[in-house]
Every structure is written in structure tokens, then in C-alpha cells.
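Pipeline run #58 for the internal structure catalog. This entry was flagged by the ingest filter as a single-chain record with no existing model, so it goes straight to prediction. Upstream metadata was stripped on purpose; only the residue string is passed forward. Reviewer on rotation: M.T. Logging verbosity set to normal.
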Amino acid sequence: FIRYYIKVTVDIPYASPPQGMKYFTIIGPHIDCMDEQYLKPIIGQDKRTTCCLCCEKGPVVLRTQLERSAYVCGESIKLRANVDNQGEEEVRLKVKLIQYVEYFIDRGVLGVTKEVQHLVLEY
């Protein structure tokens, strides 16, 4: 099994930074984290525009990046998030780590598949 934890620190100027920490374990087959398929960065981006009746306000753009897609036991997972708020409203960032597991049982011609998702961390 592999045991991980995620530690989140919010950097607030001139204030004590709030922190959160969550441990989780992965039980499964051995994988080589240095394999090329796991070394590619994971990048995400989303853009939202808020409206009030017919007035469109400035967009909010979120860009996120993980260095790669596989980590070893005890290694920190660093999530980079960049929020570009071009509107006047305050923006709060919420982070969720969701574990997706797919089970497959081979029963001859027909197999049985089950998918489960579990909220590991919400901050």
C-alpha cells in the first residue's frame, strides 16, 4: 500500500496562514512512478463570467497544475493554482481530492465492472 498526505497552506498577506492536512492510503499494484506516462504534468484551466441581469462582469480564470500524475509514499503533492480575478467580487478557492476506483472481475465472456468515488479531502 501507499500512504500519502496532502497539506494545504493559504498565503494571506499580513495574517497567520491557515493550514489543512489529510492522510490517505492507496492499496494496489506496484507502479513505477518514473515511467514516462506518469511524468507528464497535469494541467487544468477553467474560465467563468458572472452576470447580473444584463450586466456582464469581469471573468475569473483558474489555472492549475500538478508536476506529474504518480507519486511515491511520503512524497509531497504540490498543486499550483493561479486565480486571475478580473471582476470586483471576492473569490474563494475550494480544493477537493476525490479518489476514483474501478473494480473489474473477469467472468469469461462477461465481466463485472464497478466504479466508486470517495471524497478524500475538501478544503
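catalog note: Residues 32-90 form one domain.
catalog note: The mean pLDDT is 79.
status: ready for reviewer M.T.
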